[in-house]
Specification:
rod-shaped; 0% strand; mainly alpha
Length: 143
């Protein structure tokens, strides 16, 4: 009776150590992209990209911009005129510093300026209306 693997029934034969299992021979490896390579213009070999540094620290927020925003909110609630004027002054100084140094916080400074100016305008309108009503009320007689 013949065996498909050779003369002996032993599946492992020491004389066939250099042959793969089953005695099959495979063709040598060929690069699948070899047909696309032009010998006149070889494909460039690119190295690894240089390390870009990874995590970058964001720019620090300008402290006066934050102070301007906080004072503007205080101007809306507790200290209408004083805090709003301070918010406008701090906002202008902060915007100048941000332009010079490149710090973050431009939005805080702008919000502090806008809220500060609006609060000052509202304060002037409300105080003016109170004065006008007081003058109008004092001129009329109740008799």
């Amino acid at each position: 009776m013949g065996y498909p693997q050779g003369e002996s029934s032993d599946s492992f034969d020491a004389s066939k150590n250099d042959q793969p299992y089953g005695g099959q021979q495979y063709p040598p490896y060929q690069d699948p992209n070899a047909q696309y390579q032009n010998p006149q213009y070889p494909n460039p070999q690119y190295g690894n990209a240089p390390y870009a540094g990874g995590y970058q620290v964001p720019a620090a927020t300008n402290t006066l911009a934050i102070v301007s925003m906080v004072l503007a909110i205080l101007g809306l609630t507790f200290l209408p005129l004083f805090a709003s004027i301070c918010a406008v002054v701090c906002g202008h100084i902060a915007r100048g510093q941000i332009k010079r140094t490149g710090e973050g916080g431009s939005g805080f400074a702008t919000a502090g300026l806008v809220i500060g100016y609006v609060t000052i305008a509202l304060f002037v309108v409300i105080v003016g209306a109170i004065i006008i009503f007081a003058i109008a009320a004092s001129g009329s007689s109740t008799y």
